[in-house]
Amino acid sequence: MYKIETERGDLFDVNMMIAMQITVSGNATETELTTAFNNAVAAFEILNCKVVIDDNGDAFYDDCTSPKNSITFRDFELSELIREQERIRFKIEDCEFLRCFVSLANSGEMKMCFLMHHLGGDGKSLCYFIEAFLKCLNGEKCDHRKIILLDRETLPKNVKLPFWAEWLVKSYNRKWLKERRVFGFDDMAKAYEKFWQTHSTTVRNEVTESGELQEKLKVCKANKIGFTSYTIAEMIQDIPSVQDVGLAVDGRQDGNRTMSNQATGISVRYKYDRSKTLVQNAAIIDRMMKKKLNNNSYKYFVLRFMSGFDPTLVDAVNLEFAGYFHSETSAKLVKLLGYGHNMKDISITNLTRLDIPTDYGNFKLTDLIFVPPVVSYGKNIIGMVTVGDRLNTTYHSYQ
User: What pLDDT, in 10s, does the model give residues 70-88?
Assistant: First the structure.
């Protein structure tokens, strides 16, 4: 069994569904696609595990002999499919982490949407599954990939919490002792039902074609700034107030290509300076980002910080946000963490250029759209990925 620690916040969150829509040129039968899907699922240990919660409230990935990951054949429209499926809880206790929907409506082209619970992996993980799936569809074999987790033991040893954070964690854990309870999957199901009775999301994708994309990349290269920093500057240039921007970051320390949630995050606060050019503002944002990315104490802070709380208190925070549970301690921590209050103005996950092949024998991956979940501490969730000569930028938010 593998203990769930740094990613514990994903367990009772009512919106942890990652979506990727791909377009593939080529033809395959439903039988061929189903076989390829099942073979790809078999290649990843995490997709053959279930989540268990013991009597003390600790959670683990445990072996499962009959995974419930599924492939369904039907026509769909991405935003409608997400609105439909996000309110259907993943039965992670029965080893359901992944749902695939395939439309074969257009001859010579297949449209597929992969929906995954965040405990099954992060954005890069889903890319690696898609790679394995397309390889299997092409008749290739995929190596078995074990679970690799970012936990308290494997985080970089130089990641230390500042005194105030250590004190805060210990203080809330002491307060929680008087109210502590262990939550189960029945609580999760009820929270899902309650939350989604009054919530719905909307998805919008914008395409930046080759010419415009190349021009922006040239500007970034000439000024030695990252494309994400340039994009942030563009997004906030007409906003007069300070913007709190969260950025999901790949936390893999060894470049592994397995499936699990190995994402971490940083944030930058910045007010666009109208006396400076777009590039100058982007350069300042870039320096702020690199300062944190180059310091493990900043880069992995959120994982070390959140894993310090009693895991059942982390669950309580998510259930409090969902409107299902209430306690004095969890209500205060919800506000402190910005769940529904003082949220990040913008939360960005940029997968950059897709780092999987596009050609698989008779099949070619021609497009990919990435939709991150609407996390409880973010207002405007943005997913970015570059495929070939085009950039897809997807906006996901509550209606």
Answer: 999 999 999 999 999 999 9
Let me know: does 230 contact 220? Beta carbons within 8 Å.
Answer: yes
Whether the model pTM is above 0.85:
yes
CA distance 319 to 302: 20
**pLDDT for 176-221, tens place per residue?**
999 999 999 999 999 999 999 999 999 999 999 999 999 999 999 9
Closest to 379 (Cα-Cα) out of 349, 345, 348, 337: 345
